[in-house]
Amino acid sequence: MKSKLVDIHTHTQFSAFEKDRDAVIRRALEAGIWMINIGTQRDTSANSCELAHKHEGVFATVGLHPIHTEKSFHDEKELGSSFAKASEDKGGFTSRGEDFNYDYYKKLAQDTKVVAIGECGLDYYRLTEDTKKKQAEVFIKQIELAREAGKPLMIHCREAFTDLIQILNSNRQLLTSPPGIIHFFSGTTEDAQKLMALGFSFSFGGVVTFAREYEKLIKFIPPERILLETDAPYVAPLPYRGKRNEPLYVEEVAKKIAKILNKDFEEVARTTTENAIRIFNLK
Ligand SMILES: [Zn+2]
What we know:
Bound molecules: zinc ion
CATH topology: TIM Barrel
Number of domains: 1
Order of helices and strands: EHEHEHHHEHEHEHEHEHH
Largest sheet: 8 strands, parallel
CATH superfamily: Metal-dependent hydrolases
Number of helices: 11
Distance between the termini: 9 Å
C-alpha cells in the first residue's frame, strides 16, 4: 500500500472516536493517508499499539505526556467519561498523575509498530515549580528510553522552549539519528534554528489554516524538516474548525502549507511523506 500523506500526530485511539473509530481510520486509509496514533499515558499508549496491528498504514507511539505527570487535568475526549467518573470516585482528581514506569513503556516500545517515544516533553501552560521538576525528570527518562529502543522522540512543548532546548543539549549524546519531531511547533525561528542544529524536524497542524503567525516559521524551516499532523480530535483545520478533527483533514493542512510555500499540493505531499517515512522508518 502506498501513502500519499502521513498524519504523523493523531489520536484516533482516544474516546472521542469510540463510536466510529474504524470508519474514521478507513476513510483516511482509502484516501491514501497513513497515520501515527500518539500515546499520552499508559492506556492510550497500549491502545495505540493494539490499533496499529489492526491496519496497514497505521502506526503507534508510546509515552507519557507532561500534563499527565500531575494530578491536574482531564480531558473527556481523551480518556472518556467513565475514566473521569472513576478518578472522581478515588478522591476528586481529574487526572491520575502517573509516575513514569520505565519497564512498562520499554516493553511497549519493543513492538514493531511503535515508531517513536512520546508524546513527551514540557508543558508550562499550567504551572507550579514542582511541575517543572517532575516534567523534566519524566522527559529525561523518555530520552533514555528512546535511546535504548533506537526510536526517535515525539516531543510536545508548550511555553517551555528555553528549558526544552537546554535539556536536549545536555542530553545530546543520547539522541538517536534522526532524533525526532517537535510536534505542533510554536517556538520562534531562533528556537527552530537551535533544534535543527540538534537534528530535529517539525510538524504543523490545523492551526496553520487560521493563524497567520505560522507563515514566517514555515517559510524559514527547510521543506525536508516539515511534516504534517492533525492532532485529532483537537484543532480541526478550516473549513472544519470547531468540529471534531480526524486524520482525513490533514489534506487541508497540506493545501495550506503548499499555498504558504507557493508550491503544488503534490510536491508538499511528496516531500512531507518522504520525511515521515525516513524519520519514523515507516513500513
Ligand atoms: Zn497530541
